[in-house]
Design goal:
31% of the residues lie in helices and 25% in strands. By secondary structure, the protein is α/β, with parallel strands linked by helices. It has four domains: 162 residues, ANL, N-terminal domain (Rossmann fold); 137 residues, Rossmann fold (3-Layer(aba) Sandwich), CATH 3.40.50; 70 residues, Luciferase, domain 3; 93 residues, 2-Layer Sandwich (GMP Synthetase, Chain A, domain 3), CATH 3.30.300. Helix 10 links the parallel strand 11 and strand 12. Helix 2 packs across helix 6, helix 4 packs across helix 5 and helix 10 packs across helix 11.
Amino acid sequence: MTENHNLYCLFERQFLAAGDAPALSPAGGGAKLSYRGLAEGAGRYANALLALGVKPGDRVTVQVEKSAANVLLYLGTLKAGAVYQPLNTAYSPSELDYFITDAKPAVIVSDPALVAAARDIAGRRGGTVASLDADGGGELAEMAAAMSPDHETIPRAGDDLAGLLYTSGTTGRSKGAMITHRNLVSNTTTLHEVWRFVSGDVLLHALPIFHVHGLYVALGTAFLNRSEIVWHQKFDVSAVMRDLPRATVMMGVPTFYTRLVMREDLTPQLCAHMRLFVSGSAPLLADTHKDFEAKAGHRILERYGMTETGMITSNPYEGERRPGTVGYPLPGISVRIADGEGRQLAHGEVGGIEVKGPNVFKGYWGMAEETGKAFRPDGFFITGDLGVMENDGRVSIVGRDKDLIISGGLNVYPKEVEIELDAIEGVAESAVIGVPHPDFGETVVAVVTGNPPPEADMIAQLSGRLARFKVPKRIFAIAELPRNVMGKVQKSELRQRFADTFR
């Protein structure tokens, strides 16, 4: 009999072995969901999706708030052999229209507050719409509750898709990264080992689950370890402080740590039960790393990854966790620093970070040309990040060659925002940049020319067209944009000029 490589099979073995042990424990108290409950809930949601006509390989688009029901839906989608496509609830209807048009999902699961827009789009694009709310109610939840928990996991090959996660493109068109079961099994088992998960570990989970970090890294390692998960719907610094003594592991974005170090009551005593703090999704400032160690008595473990690859490198569990570096390539993953032609550079030289391994995605959905551009002939994926590698293999990221902005762990490509800015009456041209921000690490700022309307009016217009995290915090009007002799806008000059905007 051919082995079933469905990621859910890996999880299910742990769920059944854990039995009635707690899986999801609400941060504010309330009924806990056991691992047996996860397995039964996954079966019910898988049967509900099958009843809605979902077939293996079909996409299930999910734009709902973080909840235990959302986790069950994710697991049920895997179990049914379908492809989970999570979306940030901050996305606007026009953005949602693009994702649905591109992915062509069989089912769209929407928060009740957003379901009207989803139904309007589905009426034009196709797909069945069902609601699901943060409290575990809604049409899909009611349907799942009436289903049997018995369901035989649909066989999947390692190269079959498990997830379709959209990442912004430099042309303004988002690209769907095709994540396979092999990608996720490989990354999950590797991280579980290198971060030394042990019996009794408890994960404090305050990340969103429409993102690789919260969905695949945090949940995946915890499920594999049969860990209790202290479940926070969002990051609230007071609530996280309250629950730190309950946990042994926390994964966060730099914003979590900048807010924690501001607390006077962050002490080594409060964190005495903690084993590991992990940071990722955006660069962690060296000062934050040092300040956190001074106050909490723990050195944050910073790692590096991206949507297309999962995790690539990690600072060591045992050994020097050096501020400003992202550590060493994970086992089984090859990383090189290369020039523009893919030729490996000497240690100490700055170049493009390229990666190859079982963690690397299958390609971009429906975009064969973009996929071809993203890979070297020898199979290395071009990350678009600039880095340097030391003699012992330690990697540091020094920049990004595509002007990507990472604000609070969320990716923003300037072109997406510039397209909308340029459409505003009175704006001649625009340039969008990322500048340092004390809370988000980096935030979006725009510079425009022409005879634009007032700043507040432009921000209001963009708020109706873009997700909130993409809307510039400030928009400055200047006479003309700086350019080089070839006419290219010099964003480095703009970044330098507006670097102190939020300091």
